[in-house]
Fold:
Amino acid sequence: MEVEMKIRGLMMDPVTQMPIVVLKDIQGQAVLPIWVGAYEANAIALEIEKVQTPRPMTHDLLKNVLQGLEVTVQKIVVNDLRDDTFYALIWVEREGELMSIDSRPSDALALALRMDCPIFVDETVLKNSKVSSALTERTTNDQLRSYLEGLSDDDLGRYKM
Structure:
């Protein structure tokens, strides 16, 4: 089963100084932090803040190619978590044919924002991410997860690189 999520914000991991995309389900029950690269975080931040760049960035190019080929993005799904690495699928439709494309979650999220399509996370990914954090020996991860789960909408401000 898939849970619909929204991007609630971007923040920096206080321990690793890596960007984190914070996903929250539409009922507000579950929070899923996904660590991403700086370039991907920047691409997500640009779209969240509706910043126009002078030339198309990579995800803008992908959007233009898909639209030019008359392909619609139906949804993206963060579908797996293996060895602390998240996996995603981009579900596209062309001429009535539905196809999935393997993707990094950060790229799928950046594209979802540009294509205005829904974001889903497989329920098992949500469960496994909680289990893996509970089993970790590093208290910093547990502290970070507790902090993330306690964030309100006002706490998630604008992302700064």
Observations:
- The longest helix spans residues 123-135.
- The domain at 2-152 is CATH 3.10.690.10 (Bifunctional nuclease domain).
